[in-house]
Design goal:
26 helices, 557 residues
Length: 557
């Protein structure tokens, strides 16, 4: 083995050790403690826990169905037709991702609350008020706000998949007399299976394990919320470990079932387009219909954010359609609150460390798999992508269990004493897939001939890496780093579970605590959420401008 190869394997080993300690380790800790037949029997004998699992499953199923209904027509319109503002419509599809759904829930409550906008309109028209946020209405509200947040993931994957379909196949079907529906069901839909699998699996698992949205709506009969509520009794009551194991098992079953039902040979069924763009121009007033469809969906998705912004600026919004009076007082109160400014500083510190960890591990993993082609690199790539399939609450709970169980973890990764390194590593692991997929896509699109030419001119391997390879994929590295940093700033599960002292709260935990304060707490939380929304919006706009429609590849398993 050459010295160069030895160093490459050494770097890959460092990445593998990082993943084993901070991805496999938390999952193993949860499984080791929670995989106890007595504990599992207690979970399934309890009506409350079984009801929580059933509710979580129904939320995942309904949310994924809603996401599919929203995303598929829009992706088909985007791929098939040319229409005004098409490039802007694609950017609008990223709008729901600028804020975690649990923060958007603050605005959603203002729209669907008992004295919210919708009920005010119903009462004025002579209809009785509807309890959208109580009873069965609460379930549908949770599903709706999660669907309006998650549909971009499936949409981006479907647009990418449609871009790889050869339009000549549809032309051949039309020439043989097949109608639109037959061509769609027999040609287009089967070829979309990779995109459906890639996006749909993430949406299904994400909505099944979502913690923030049900928590904000007070929908406590879900498994994720039950796990969160059981954290305080962790040292005396091990049942939450069993709940996490059950959640992990069902999440894996749901993903594998989706892969079996939709995948099959789908990975080999996608056909690379070779006939150029098949987008058709529309004549007359019809050319505005696709634009109207995109604008309508974008408006509905933006409603929680619009309500959040209006609430942050209003003096009073109770029993009226529009807010009454505007003020900057809530922003001033937010700045003067003792947890707000420290939480911003904490989040910047945690997210910056997480970005550095994720970029280092992600770039090395992508290089090992795509360029160096080392033995075991495929396994490292698979491990790096697991956080997209493993629920975030499982990883966060596993870190908490490690700090309780292992002395070395309690010394360096104690969530009570100082969770900085713990949160930074947890954020990095959760956002590592974005860096790996982004850098891998850049390496696959960069011809190796340029690197070979540099070697033929006498450049050493590290000089080639530093002067040729990395500069060519720098945009992809920056995009991955932007995603890792911005989403770490607004991470929910890890923040709610691992940040336990007010002085160490990140932004999302501070927003949750503020929202629980009676009176002005919700208004201050909304003002804080506006700052977070603007920050993430700028990040996603920059990433979208750099990657374009290829941004969907970041959300692939």
């Amino acid at each position: 083995m050459t010295p160069l190869r030895f160093i490459q394997y050494l770097l890959l080993g460092a990445v593998a050790l990082f993943l084993l300690l901070f991805l496999v380790g938390p999952v193993y800790t949860v499984v080791e403690v929670g995989l106890d037949w007595q504990l599992l029997r207690e979970v399934f004998r309890s009506y409350i826990y079984v009801e929580g699992l059933w509710n979580s499953f129904l939320i995942a199923l309904v949310t994924t169905g809603m996401v599919f209904v929203i995303s598929l027509p829009l992706a088909l319109l985007y791929d098939r037709y040319e229409f005004p503002l098409k490039s802007w419509c694609s950017l609008l599809m990223m709008l729901p991702m600028i804020l975690p759904p649990f923060v958007g829930a603050l605005g959603f409550q203002q729209i669907l609350g008992h004295y919210g906008v919708v009920n005010t309109l119903l009462v004025r028209m002579g209809f009785p008020a509807v309890d959208f946020l109580g009873g069965e209405g609460r379930f549908w509200s949770v599903c709706l706000i999660e669907a309006l947040h998650l549909y971009p993931i499936l949409y981006l994957n479907l647009v990418t998949a449609l871009g790889n379909v050869d339009p000549a196949l549809n032309e051949a079907g039309r020439n043989l007399g097949a109608g639109w529906w037959m061509r769609f069901t027999r040609i287009t839909l089967p070829l979309l299976k990779p995109g459906i699998l890639a996006g749909g699996s993430i949406v299904l698992v994400w909505s099944f394990t979502e913690l923030g949205t049900p928590l904000m709506f007070g929908y406590n009969r879900t498994t994720a919320v039950q796990i969160f509520n059981g954290i305080m009794e962790l040292e005396t009551n091990p049942v939450p470990y069993a709940l996490v194991v059950v959640m992990l098992f069902f999440a894996a079953v749901m993903y594998l079932a989706g892969k079996f039902a939709l995948g099959g040979n789908a990975a080999n069924s996608s056909v690379k387009g070779c006939a150029g763009s098949s987008a058709l121009p529309l004549a007359g007033w019809r050319r505005f219909l696709p634009t109207a469809a995109f604008l309508l969906v974008s408006f509905l998705a933006a409603l929680p954010h619009i309500a959040l912004v209006l609430t942050a600026f209003t003096m009073r919004w109770y029993g009226t359609v529009l807010p009454e009076g505007f003020t900057l007082l809530h922003f001033e109160n937010a700045l003067s609150n003792k947890v707000v400014v420290p939480s911003i500083i904490n989040s910047l510190r945690y997210a910056l460390l997480a970005m550095l960890f994720a970029v280092a591990a992600g770039v090395l993993t992508a290089l090992a798999a795509v360029r160096w082609k080392l033995r075991g690199s495929a396994l490292a790539d698979l491990l790096a992508m697991l956080p997209l399939a493993v629920p975030g609450i499982v990883i966060a709970f596993g870190f908490l269990g490690m700090s309780v169980k292992y002395r070395w973890a309690a010394e360096y990764f104690n969530p009570v004493e100082n969770p900085m390194w713990l949160l930074a590593v947890a954020y990095a692991v959760r956002r590592l897939p974005y860096v790996v997929r982004s850098v891998s896509a850049g390496l696959e699109q960069t011809p190796e001939e340029l690197e070979n030419a540099a070697r033929n001119c006498g450049a050493g391997p590290w000089r080639v890496l530093r002067k040729i390879t990395l500069p060519l994929v720098l945009a992809n590295v920056i995009v991955g780093a932007l995603f890792a940093f911005s989403f770490s700033m607004l991470e929910v599960s890890d923040s709610l579970i691992l940040a336990q002292k007010a002085q160490y709260y990140p932004i999302t935990r501070a927003i949750y605590e503020l929202s629980q304060i009676l009176g002005s707490g919700a208004y201050i939380a909304c003002a804080f959420g506006v700052w977070a929304m603007l920050f993430l919006a700028a990040t996603l706009a920059a990433a979208g401008a750099m990657l374009g429609r290829k941004i969907g590849s970041i959300f692939r398993l």
